[in-house]
Amino acid sequence: MYTQDVFIDIHEELYPYSKVLEFFKVVERDFDVKKYCNGSNAGGRWIFQIYSEEFILEISDTIQKHIQIEGNHPIAEVMSGDGRLTEFIRTRLDCDIITTDAKTGRYNIAYPKWVEKKTAIETVEEYDPALVIISWEPYLSMAGIELVKMGIPLMWIGNPEMCGHEELFEFDFWSLNSKFAISRHDSFLSQERKTDVFVFNVDKRLNCSV
User: Fold this and answer.
1) Which of 21, 72, 98, 169 is the most buried (most CB within 10 A)?
2) Which pTM was predicted?
3) How many Å apart are CA 24 and CA 28, to the nearest integer?
4) Gap between the Cα atoms of 104 and 102, Å rounded
5) What is the domain partition of the chain in residue ranges?
6) Closest by alpha carbon to 184, among 12, 48, 52?
7) CATH fold of 2-200, please?
């Protein structure tokens, strides 16, 4: 778990959920989870939602089952940070994924060149995506609400009490109730979980295929 006395970058590759969970129990016990996720890891990576093989498979399966993707309508991950979520799901979905971030400089994130500098609304206006994915929308941001009002299918990942705007959840949605959704704000030793995946403007009863 250490590389030259520094904790490994847990997102350097995709690990099984059991290994991720055990890793963060050690981080919580011997170090500090938030500090680790604020770049104090071997990759210098900023982490909000913590990924595992099972979580990425769950996200990908949900998209395949419930989102109809046709023609030139890609998936768009907005507010993507370093785009690691896109990289993980891209290998599991046979469709284009556009990845953007406003790159405001609020966090010391190492953005790959392929992450385009665009806001969520700019991304939608340019690419007309079949689905927008947001992970950890900034607190009190209205972008998620605007996207839902536009009728665009939205997959929103995070903690409704700590990111985004509370009014977003006045709209109809359904959640994955994912047991694999974990984040920087969880306690791994006491098993306190705070995040989930919420889906807007998608009829759960319809089964689609990418």
Assistant:
1) 98
2) 0.94
3) 6
4) 6
5) 2-200
6) 48
7) Rossmann fold (3.40.50)
